Amino acid sequence: MLQVQNLEVVYDDVMLVLRGVSVAVPPGGIVALLGANGAGKTTLLRAITGLLDVHDGEVTKGSVTLDGEPVHHLRPAALVRRGICQVMEGRRIFAELTVEENLRIGGHTSPRTIKARMEDVLTLFPVLAERRRRTAGYLSGGEQQMLAMGRALMAEPRYLLLDEPSLGLAPRLVEQVRGLIVEINKRGTGVLLVEQNATMALSIAAHGYVLETGKVVLDKPADQLLADEDIREFYLGLTRESFRDVKHYKRRKRWLS
Ligand SMILES: Nc1ncnc2c1ncn2[C@@H]1O[C@H](COP(=O)(O)OP(=O)(O)O)[C@@H](O)[C@H]1O
Ligand SMILES: [Mg+2]
Fold first, then answer.
1. Are strands 190-195 and 15-25 parallel, antiparallel or unpaired?
2. What pLDDT digit, counting tens, does each position of 197-231 carry?
3. Can you tell me the distance from the alpha carbon of 193 to that of 23, in angstroms, rounded to the nearest whole number?
4. Domains of the chain
5. What's a Pfam family this protein contains (predicted)?
6. Which residues have C-beta atoms less than 6 Å from ligand 1?
7. What are the Cα distances from residue 173, in Å, to 72, 126, 133, 165?
């Protein structure tokens, strides 16, 4: 179990950004972390993967534990070895390197293991297999997202943290990324999925958290979050505004005025 307990994070010694956040990801589970821009989602992932230092951030209270053992003092590389990997927001791939070279960087093990892992990852992402010797910078947005995910999978993580993997992707590609997350999870990897696309995230997660200005304001099974109308409108920004609803609403307004 990957567990964040009562976590407080401060940036630049003064800015309190997470105020007592608790989140749990069971082994092999999918958990969604939702919330508006600036709520603290990326900060929470940084705290789990040891990347706060780089951003002048610090855990000032609480803990991150892996199977009960505190891990928030570990370096990022040590966390990768323990099985925690992150795909950062904005798909940080190495644009000048080829697809294969990008994947090799994610390996962290012996050359032989890396070769086997790469074949495995390329099976999971046929698009990348076709473009394995292509320069990564020339891949499309969706392909780059897949490369970033593939690179994280090279380390065979027990837990994969994804920061807004659907951001900026066309609906068809969002669907593809969604399918890949399901597939990765089927192979036994636990997933913490940070998303603005609440519908997508909750459709595959078992549990969801909604973060609001550094606090967890909702902590419920995903189906309950999806079903609740207030939650849909106020927290997830999912209004019932299909085109038909809008037309209906306008007609009603005309009648009333
Ligand atoms: N390196 C940083 N230094 C100072 N403040 C930061 C830093 N990174 C993020 N913040 C602030 O922390 C808050 C949460 O940011 P973030 O975790 O990126 O939110 P989210 O990922 O939910 O959009 C925001 O107010 C943001 O401006
Ligand atoms: Mg973010």
1. unpaired
2. 888 999 999 999 999 999 999 999 999 998 877 77
3. 12
4. 2-91+152-256 (3.40.50.300)
5. ABC_tran
6. 11-12, 15, 17, 35, 37-43, 55-56
7. 34, 14, 22, 10
Cα 44 from Cα 42, distance rounded (Å) = 5
pLDDT at 19 > cutoff 60: yes
Q: Are strands 190-195 and 30-34 parallel, antiparallel or unpaired?
A: parallel
Burial of 103 (0-12, 13-18, 19+ CB in 10 A): buried
Give 38 Cα–ligand 1 centroid separation in angstroms: 6
**What's the gap in Å between 141 CA and the centre of ligand 1?**
24
Residue closest to 68 by CA, chosen among 5, 162, 159, 160: 5
Alpha-carbon separation of residue 55 from 47, 72, 146, 208 (angstroms): 11, 15, 26, 27
Contact 129/119 with Cβ under 8 angstroms? Answer: no
Q: Report DSSP state, residue 233.
A: I
Ligand 2 centre to CA of 243 (Å) is: 30
- The gap between the terminal CA atoms of the chain, to the nearest Å, is 57
Q: What pLDDT score does 238 carry?
A: 60
Q: Percent of the chain at pLDDT above 70?
A: 89
